């Protein structure tokens, strides 16, 4: 049984890595936000707007726990904040999962965000200095939770394929 959970900050490469890892390991790929959206028929933004963050975080926790409890192989990309709420960081330590923190530096995150050509709501409208401060504070606040993952893989200056190879070598 291979249940692989990828966590990390926005633009750390969770989605890209999960898709490539899924193909390399020949197991299904899941994105937690997409699963929630499919189950509720609402986007994450709509859930936040109509039901609030507390309701979303409960849905997020219940969905993640339910997926882990299913006895199937998968690679799942968590939302950037998922480990930080509802004791989800404890799920990263379960015996039946392999959890990986995609550790990415502040400057690399900012470079990736700018290079993606799409805005991220959390940092939209921030200038370079504000974005650096915002990302640095968030990473500081969240790193304790991310470090509950069983493995850390640094992604700075690495191609997605190299990150995937490093993860595959853990098995």
From TrEMBL:
A Pfam family: SKI
Residues annotated for substrate binding in this entry: 33, 57, 80, 142
Gene Ontology MF: a single term: shikimate kinase activity
Predominant place of localization: cytoplasm
Sequence positions that bind Mg(2+): 15
Cofactor: Mg(2+)
Binding site for ATP: 11-16, 120
EC number: 2.7.1.71
Pathway connected to this protein: Metabolic intermediate biosynthesis; chorismate biosynthesis; chorismate from D-erythrose 4-phosphate and phosphoenolpyruvate: step 5/7
Ranges annotated as spanning the membrane: none
EC category name: transferase
Biological-process GO terms, alphabetical: amino acid biosynthetic process; aromatic amino acid family biosynthetic process; chorismate biosynthetic process
Localization of this protein: Cytoplasm
Cofactor note: Binds 1 Mg(2+) ion per subunit.
Enzymatic reactions: shikimate + ATP = 3-phosphoshikimate + ADP + H(+)
Keywords noted in UniProt: Amino-acid biosynthesis, Aromatic amino acid biosynthesis, ATP-binding, Cytoplasm, Kinase, Magnesium, Metal-binding, Nucleotide-binding, Transferase
Gene Ontology CC annotation, any one: cytosol
Gene3D superfamilies the record matches: P-loop containing nucleotide triphosphate hydrolases
Organism domain of life: Bacteria
Quaternary context: Monomer.
Function: Catalyzes the specific phosphorylation of the 3-hydroxyl group of shikimic acid using ATP as a cosubstrate.
PANTHER family for the chain: SHIKIMATE KINASE, SHIKIMATE KINASE 1, CHLOROPLASTIC
Family of this protein: Belongs to the shikimate kinase family.
Protein name: Shikimate kinase
Organism: Flavobacterium rivuli WB 3.3-2 = DSM 21788
Chain's gene name: aroK
């Amino acid at each position: 049984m291979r249940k692989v959970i990828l966590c990390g900050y926005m633009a750390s490469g969770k989605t890209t890595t999960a898709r490539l890892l899924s193909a390399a390991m020949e197991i299904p790929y899941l994105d937690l936000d997409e699963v929630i959206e499919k189950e509720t028929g609402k986007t994450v933004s709509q859930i936040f707007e109509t039901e609030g963050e507390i309701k979303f975080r409960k849905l997020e926790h219940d969905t993640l726990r339910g997926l882990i409890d299913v006895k199937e192989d998968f690679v799942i990309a968590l939302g950037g904040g998922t480990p930080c709420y509802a004791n989800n960081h404890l799920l990263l330590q379960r015996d039946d999962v392999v959890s990986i923190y995609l550790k990415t530096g502040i400057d690399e995150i900012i470079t990736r965000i700018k290079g993606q050509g799409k805005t991220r709501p959390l940092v939209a409208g921030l200038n370079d200095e504000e974005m650096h401060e915002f990302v640095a504070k968030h990473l500081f606040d969240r790193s304790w939770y991310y470090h509950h993952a069983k493995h850390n893989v640094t992604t700075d200056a690495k191609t997605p394929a190299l990150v995937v190879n490093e993860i595959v070598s853990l098995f």
